[in-house]
Amino acid sequence: MKRYGFTLVELLLMVIILGILAAIIIPQYSAANEETKMSSLINEMQNVRSQIQLYQTQHKGALPTTGGLSFVDAMTKYTNADGSLANPQAPGPKVFGPYLQQIPKNPFISEDSAASKVNTGTDRPAADGSSGWFYNTNTGDFNANDDDVHAGL
């Protein structure tokens, strides 16, 4: 009587081959994941930066925080030409925005509450991941705040 099946040596060879394939594929997947995050980060920064420029154009060169509003309020709510909050129920010819529905999340920040948080000021804080973004109120620069590499983009 003839038996059909695999020997122990054949099974071990298959396990070794699958292990080698996994060792080759998994690092490539990790690199692709980092590339995807970087692409998303760059796209989000470009989008916010273009909306900051639109804000400046519509507000006679003033930066979003010039009117006394927080950066988030200036970008996500209706504003008057002077940079103050406007009444969204009575929009008129001098009511602008909102420029963003919400502040995007920095894909390199794992904590959801910090990923879309924006630190503002004149000096960039340590890029420690406590917030997803940093907005310079003097220059209008908008950068990632997750680490020093991404902050320079």
Describe, in plain words, how this protein is organized in 3D.
By secondary structure, this protein is mostly helical. It has one domain. Helix content is 42%, strand content 10%. The protein has 4 helices and 5 strands; from the N terminus they run ααββαβββα. A 3-stranded mixed β-sheet has the order 3-4-5. It starts with 7 loop residues before the first helix and ends with a helix.
Q: Notable features of this structure?
A:
about 150 residues, mainly alpha, two-stranded antiparallel sheet, 4 helices
* Backbone CA Rg: 25 Å
DSSP strand tally:
5
How many strands, which pairing sense, and closed or not: the largest β-sheet?
3 strands, mixed
- Derived from helix and strand composition plus strand pairing, the structural class reads mainly alpha
Structurally, how many domains make up the residues?
Answer: 1
Strand content: 5-15%
**What is the global morphology?**
elongated
Number of distinct helices: 4
Fraction of residues in helix: 40-55%
Cα-to-Cα separation, first versus last residue: 71 Å
The stretches of 5 or more residues where confidence is low (pLDDT under 50) are none
Q: Could you state the order of secondary-structure elements as H and E?
A: HHEEHEEEH
Average pLDDT, all residues? 88
